[in-house]
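Record 1 of the preview.
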Amino acid sequence: MNKHDRRFDRAREALLDGSTAAEESTRAIGNGYFTAAQAIGVFNMKLIEMAQGNAMAAVNFAQQVATVKGPAEAANLWSSYARERFETLTDQSRELTALAQKVIIPTVQR
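->
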């Protein structure tokens, strides 16, 4: 095998190695996008679920307000509702933060 043939063989091997590396990178990027899209879908479903729960809580509260018998009962109801909503929103924020971390960290590490 002469010098020219060896150079040609090395160039061909380098080209094949580069092509394989590019294919693997493309596949990894595609998998990363797919994983991120799935995680974002889960995150969005959780947001919708929370919004639905919050809307139902507001409707229930409005129904309760409509039946109060006096200012003291209304004040107590408002106070209870505000405390309950604050606790719920705090829990929802924690849950969304944890879910976002599950989405972001694996995606960034790819």
